[in-house]
């Protein structure tokens, strides 16, 4: 599996899993401890001022010391209320339970004292579980107190799972057959101070008992005085004027102390908690937690930023970015809190903290597997140069792999160096191009007049060619390079360089291990000398072919106008011999220097035409030339001109050695040799035959059996060697023999062309 | 008819002039290519006999120049000592009407000149019956008689025979023959044409003894040549 794909899968796995974990953590609120801790720390950054309107009157240690052990007789409280009455406070919350009967006289005293304080509120409490299967019982103050109070309210506290009071429920909702809501004592107080209007926070609630996160003022920031100071009349009544009085137990022995989210981790008196709640109601600055989906979105956003970054950032920067993101989450949480919004960052932080090591682990695993696989492949491939033994030692798996990789890379470097050295030291110029036609490597191109522009500069192949190929040859070279040459890999192109040297350029494919085309390698071979030699030879052949033939043609033309005579006839004979010599010589030279270019030839017609073309010669000596064709329309693959000339030479030879009025028989027939079809052509004459000592070397160059020639005829010796060369070139054979009853027979065998679909 | 002869060899010009004048035409000789081209711009000729290798301009260059520069371009016979198969087909494909390799028999040259002039005068009306030497072609019955004997031919063979006789001494390209006789050259291999030519050759006994021979111009086509009494 390719590393890229494997890492993609791993990444997707990590992304999905981490997102799921974050979502579930939020859903189950599993990280409340962490969130509480953070909330406590962050909310400590900014604390509200305590209201100067509120005055706490605490039953403190001094009061207990003065008035004796708790609970006190109710006439003590009656005494207090009489003192308070003189001060005319705005409202009073008396956070002391009055649900049990006491001494009737004292109760009456208290009730009377209370009645003279108009804004007095009393707590009620609940007993869980209630009697007769009810969820709870309501314990209201005794009717005689209840009647004189402006209202009652609950004083239940809401504890979080760590036992800390962070929130408050603005009412207590009854259940069952008689659902009834009891507003909180402080809500009642608020309403009293605001002419009976419920607090805005209360109005916003869907369910009135949903607890609200409240901000806390610093401990002891509310004004407080001792119960005993009031009771003893040490405080002037004016001090109490227009105050809101909260009366409750503050002595540590009385048990009304609870943990609150202040950084010092300490507890707070119930009555001070109430003061805080009242402050929050008045300021209306409760903290609203974000909805689930908002939590989710805010928690996933930094996670996905990090996940996306895994693809782009180096691992080293990723760790810093992770830390940065954590800081950003905390910063955002603090910022939101300043706007009274609470984002629980625990899940987001856990996500950020976990995803980095998990991804690191998966990436390492994938990379390790990949290295294993690649190293396995590398070991399996052929190693071409000596390898240095690698150091062994106990290391962990990945380190081992990394070492092997280093080793493999250094081996590759050696190989590259080796290849580069090998290419640089090649005797001929070459260069390498990639698939986009850019030149990646050049070697010794200077010797063909090409100066590389500079080491760093990458040349386009086309520009490069223009620098050393003459403009005349450029189109041909480009055409060669543009060819799709899957089929004809052996082809090459010739061009002349600007230095007037001739090169043959050949292109080969560079394939990857998987067989994909990666580029091309271009070899240049200096063929200047060969090309010059070929050119010179061609010039000689031109000279022979044209410049030697032309005067002979002129001689024959001249003879045509002269009166026939014996010497004219002999001059014509010599001129024709010179022509034949030139033709055979040029023909022989050409077939040795050119490639075979065969075409379909109907052999019988070729032989008939060769015979026909010699008819004037034969006719002059009354020699009959008969062609007997049993070749059954056989075609051969051949070069018509040279084959024609070969049969002309053979028949001309037969005529030359035939007696006047003789007969020449030419027979064609099909035969099979080794199951391969051939055509045999036999040319028999009635001449003296070939002398036995010549018969073996008849087809060698310049061999001629002139001793047997009739009269003036003479052979140059090139005629038959031309025949032998041509027939051999066609995959056939030619031989000569003497017939029993006199005369010579030349037999040519030529392979039949394969049938083609008509 | 006026015939221009261009050759750098004065012997050849004389030789050709004799042949041309022997046929009752007028010959004008030029010893180099430049002289010929300037004459062609001022003068009118019915035929140009052109040597390949000449000082000034080569035959092929003049041939190409003529097709651009001369209005109502006269037919051209290329005549040279070059024998390569490629040279011959190059000349014919470049627009020459015929090609003669030097040296050649005066009778043959005369016949080839006649063939080119005959075609350009456009005189060959389709007679119902026509005789060439000992051969008599009956175009209505599509039959050929040789020395009074009837020779059985297929329709295509007769058409091929007729085409070659009508254009005797003229080099016909394979493509021309295929398109004239078969009306197409699709689905027709060169072997088909070779076989038909071969059958016509043997059925009609077209041999020098009978005054005719079929000559293959390699890489180009065929020519039916008249010899001696075949005229």
From TrEMBL, chain A:
It catalyses: ATP + protein L-histidine = ADP + protein N-phospho-L-histidine. Its EC number is 2.7.13.3. GO terms for molecular function: phosphorelay response regulator activity; phosphorelay sensor kinase activity; protein kinase activator activity. The keyword Kinase applies. Keywords: Kinase, Membrane, Transferase, Transmembrane, Transmembrane helix. This is histidine kinase. CDD domains: HATPase, PAS. The chain crosses the membrane at residues 7-28, 292-311, 318-336. GO terms for biological process: osmosensory signaling via phosphorelay pathway.
UniProtKB/TrEMBL annotation, chain B:
One of its GO terms (biological process) is regulation of DNA-templated transcription. SMART domains: REC, Trans_reg_C. GO terms for cellular component: cytosol; protein-DNA complex. Keywords: DNA-binding, Phosphoprotein, Two-component regulatory system. It comes from the Bacteria. The modification 4-aspartylphosphate is found at residue 51. InterPro entries: CheY-like_superfamily, OmpR/PhoB-type_DNA-bd, Sig_transdc_resp-reg_receiver, WalR-like, WH-like_DNA-bd_sf. Residues 127-226 bind DNA. This is DNA-binding response regulator, OmpR family, contains REC and winged-helix (WHTH) domain. Transmembrane segments: none annotated. Residues 2-117 form the Response regulatory domain. The keyword DNA-binding applies. GO terms for molecular function: phosphorelay response regulator activity; transcription cis-regulatory region binding. Residues 127-226 form the OmpR/PhoB-type domain.
């Amino acid at each position: 599996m390719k590393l890229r794909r494997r890492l993609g899968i791993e990444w997707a796995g990590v992304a999905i899993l981490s997102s799921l974990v974050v979502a579930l953590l939020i859903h189950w609120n599993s990280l409340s401890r962490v969130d509480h801790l953070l909330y406590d720390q962050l909310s400590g950054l900014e604390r509200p001022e305590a209201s100067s309107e509120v005055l706490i009157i605490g039953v403190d240690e001094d009061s207990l010391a003065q008035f004796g052990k708790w609970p006190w007789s109710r006439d003590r409280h009656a005494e207090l209320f009489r003192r308070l009455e003189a001060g005319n406070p705005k409202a009073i919350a008396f956070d002391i339970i009055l649900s049990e009967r006491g001494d009737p006289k004292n109760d009456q005293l208290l009730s009377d004292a209370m009645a003279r304080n108009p804004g007095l509120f009393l707590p009620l409490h609940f007993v869980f579980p209630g009697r007769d299967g009810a969820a709870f019982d309501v314990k209201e103050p005794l009717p005689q107190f209840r009647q004189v109070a402006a209202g009652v309210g609950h004083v239940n506290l809401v504890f979080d799972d760590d036992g800390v009071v962070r929130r408050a429920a603005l009412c207590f909702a009854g259940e069952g057959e008689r659902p009834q809501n009891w507003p909180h004592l402080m809500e009642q107080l608020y309403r009293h101070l605001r002419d009976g209007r419920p607090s805005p926070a209360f109005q916003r609630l869907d369910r009135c008992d949903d607890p609200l996160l409240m901000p806390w003022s610093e401990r002891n920031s509310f004004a407080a005085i001792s119960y005993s100071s009031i009771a003893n009349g040490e405080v002037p009544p004016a001090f109490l004027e227009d105050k809101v009085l909260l009366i409750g137990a503050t002595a540590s022995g009385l048990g009304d102390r609870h943990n609150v989210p202040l950084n010092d981790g300490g507890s707070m008196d119930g009555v001070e908690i109430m003061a805080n709640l009242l402050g929050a109601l008045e300021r209306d600055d409760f903290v609203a937690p974000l909805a689930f989906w908002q939590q989710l979105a805010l928690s996933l956003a930094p996670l996905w930023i990090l996940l996306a970054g895994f693809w782009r950032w180096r691992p080293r920067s990723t760790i810093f970015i992770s830390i940065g993101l954590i800081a950003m989450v905390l910063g955002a949480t603090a910022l939101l809190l300043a706007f009274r919004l609470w984002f629980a960052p625990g899940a987001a932080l856990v996500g950020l903290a976990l995803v980095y090591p998990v991804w690191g682990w998966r990436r390492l695993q994938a990379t390790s597997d990949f290295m294993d696989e690649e190293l396995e492949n590398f070991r399996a491939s052929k190693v071409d140069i000596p390898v240095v033994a690698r150091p062994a030692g106990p290391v962990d798996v990945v380190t081992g792999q990394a070492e092997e990789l280093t080793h493999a890379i250094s081996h590759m470097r050696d190989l590259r160096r080796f290849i580069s050295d090998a290419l640089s030291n090649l005797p001929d110029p070459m260069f390498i191009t990639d698939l986009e036609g850019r030149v990646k490597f050049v070697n010794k191109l200077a010797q063909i007049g090409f100066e590389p522009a500079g080491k760093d500069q990458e040349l386009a192949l086309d520009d490069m060619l223009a620098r050393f190929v003459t403009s005349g040859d450029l189109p041909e070279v480009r055409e060669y390079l543009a060819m799709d040459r899957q089929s004809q890999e052996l082809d090459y192109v010739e061009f002349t360089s600007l230095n007037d040297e001739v090169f043959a350029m050949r292109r080969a494919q560079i394939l990857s291990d998987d067989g994909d085309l990666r580029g091309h390698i271009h070899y240049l071979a200096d063929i200047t000398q060969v090309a010059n030699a070929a050119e010179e030879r061609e010039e000689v052949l031109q000279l022979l072919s044209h410049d030697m033939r032309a005067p002979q043609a002129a001689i024959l033309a001249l003879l045509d106008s002269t009166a026939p005579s014996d010497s004219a006839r002999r001059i014509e004979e010599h001129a024709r011999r010179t022509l034949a010599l030139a033709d055979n010589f040029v023909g022989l030279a050409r077939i040795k220097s050119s490639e075979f270019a065969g075409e379909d030839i109907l052999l019988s017609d070729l032989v008939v035409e060769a015979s026909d073309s010699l008819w004037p010669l034969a006719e002059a000596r009354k020699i009959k030339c008969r062609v007997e064709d049993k070749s059954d329309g056989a075609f051969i693959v051949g070069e018509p001109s040279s084959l024609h000339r070969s049969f002309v030479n053979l028949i001309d030879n037969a005529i030359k050695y035939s007696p006047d009025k003789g007969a020449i028989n030419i027979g064609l027939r099909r035969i099979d040799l080794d199951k391969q079809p051939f055509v045999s052509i036999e040319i028999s004459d009635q001449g003296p035959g070939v002398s036995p000592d010549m018969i073996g070397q008849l087809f060698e160059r310049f061999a001629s059996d002139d001793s047997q020639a009739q009269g003036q005829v003479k052979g140059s010796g090139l005629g038959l060697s031309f025949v032998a060369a041509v027939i051999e070139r066609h995959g056939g054979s030619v031989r000569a023999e003497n017939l029993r009853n006199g005369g010579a027979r030349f037999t040519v065998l030529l392979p039949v062309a394969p049938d083609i679909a008509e | 008819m006026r015939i221009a002869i261009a050759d750098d060899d004065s012997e050849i010009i004389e030789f050709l002039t004799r042949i041309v004048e022997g046929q009752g035409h007028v010959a004008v000789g030029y010893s180099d290519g430049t002289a010929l081209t300037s004459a062609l711009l001022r003068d009118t000729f019915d035929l140009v006999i052109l040597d390949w290798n000449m000082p000034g301009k080569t035959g092929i260059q003049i041939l190409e120049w003529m097709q651009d520069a001369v209005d109502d371009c006269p037919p051209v016979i290329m005549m040279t000592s070059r024998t390569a198969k490629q040279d011959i087909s190059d000349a014919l494909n470049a627009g020459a009407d015929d090609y003669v390799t030097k040296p050649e028999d005066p009778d043959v040259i005369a016949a080839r000149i006649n063939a080119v002039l005959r075609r350009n005068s456009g005189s060959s009306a389709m007679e119902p019956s026509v005789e060439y030497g000992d051969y008599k072609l009956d175009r209505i019955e599509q039959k050929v008689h040789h020395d009074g004997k009837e020779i059985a031919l297929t329709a295509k063979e007769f058409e091929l025979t007729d085409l070659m006789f009508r254009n005797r001494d003229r080099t016909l390209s394979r493509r021309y023959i295929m398109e004239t006789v078969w009306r197409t050259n699709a689905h027709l291999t060169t072997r088909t044409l070779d076989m038909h030519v071969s059958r016509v050759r043997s059925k009609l006994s077209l041999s020098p003894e009978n005054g005719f021979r079929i000559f293959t111009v390699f890489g180009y086509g065929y020519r039916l040549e008249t010899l001696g009494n075949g005229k």
